[in-house]
Amino acid sequence: MASSGLTxxxxxxxxxxxxxxxxEELGLTYExxxxxxxxxxxxxxxxxxxxxNKGLALFESGNIMLYLVERYxxxxxxxxxxxxxxxxxxxxxxQMSALGPTFGQIFDTTYxxxxxxxxxxxxxxxxxxxxxxxxxxxxxxxxxxxxxxxxIADIACFPLVASMAVLGLxxxxxxxxxxxxxxxxxxxxxxxxxxxxxxxxxxxxxVMAVQQAV
Length: 214
Known about the structure:
Blueprint: E1 6-9, H1 14-25, E2 30-33, E3 47-50, E4 56-59, H2 61-72, H3 82-111, H4 118-141, H5 152-162, H6 175-185, H7 196-213
Parallel strand pairs: 1-2
Antiparallel strand pairs: 1-3, 3-4
Helix pairs in contact: 1-2, 1-5, 3-4, 3-5, 4-6
């Protein structure tokens, strides 16, 4: 394990990619490790250790993102005024409390609940579409979720939107959202998500293989 710098405990999931993309955007060097219970008492990814700050251990993706931009961002990605900052953090917390859990429910209901409860799945997908519509309305007004400047609000939401196809949803139903997704995929850090569908497909195939073996 590293004695200096940052160590990231992560996996190829939207929550994991949020941190990886932000680290790349900030130009920070980090060592990547698999998840580790002693770093995160909840035993879930992502988690991170900053060896240059007394070995500070961090967990929960939103908490890690705020720490990174406040400590290393030098004013980048979190706004320059109170109005900008709190609009950005509003979107960040919305992702964690609304978009993320809803997408997680679709994934679980589709691939883990057998037999599939079709009525429940359609209800959750309808809520996901409503939430995507919230993003679409914001992006119809300005270039990025929180305004005209790219921020951690976009980084937090992007991995989920980029994974929509795995959940049976289409970004092309939301033209502004599709344009936003394409632009972020064109960024060097955003391009890390280009293989995310393949990663999720492997996860789903493994889950289904285990279920069939039981």
